[in-house]
Amino acid sequence: MAPQLHNKTMQMIKLWKLKSKLAHGRAFWMADDITNMMLDAIMAFPDDNDSPVEFPPGPMPALADPLIALTNSLEMTLKSPVPKLHHWALRQLPHMRKAQALKEDMITEQLEKAARRFVEGSVADEDSRCLIDEILRRETQTTAKEKRPPAYKSRSMYDELFGILIAGHDTSSSSLLWGLKHLSNNQSAQHRLRTEMRRALPQAAAEGRPPTITEIVALRLPYLDAVAEEIFRTALTMSAHVRTTTEDAPLLGYTISKGTNVFMAVNEPGFFSPPFPISERLRSETWKAGGGGHAVEDWDFVDFGEFRPERWLVRDDDHESDGKEEGEVVDPSQAPQMLFSLGPRSCDVDTSTGKWIGYQLLADIGYGLTIQAPVVVVQGISPPQDISMAGSIVILIQNLLGGIWVPVGQNIFGNQLMNTIRRLRPEIDPTMVVSTGATEIRRVFSAEDIPAVLEGFMQGLRGAFILGTACASVSVVILIVAFFIDYHVLTHGQPPRGRRPRVSSKCHRNSRPSCYCW
Question: 512, 383 in Cβ contact below 8 A?
Answer without folding.
Answer: yes
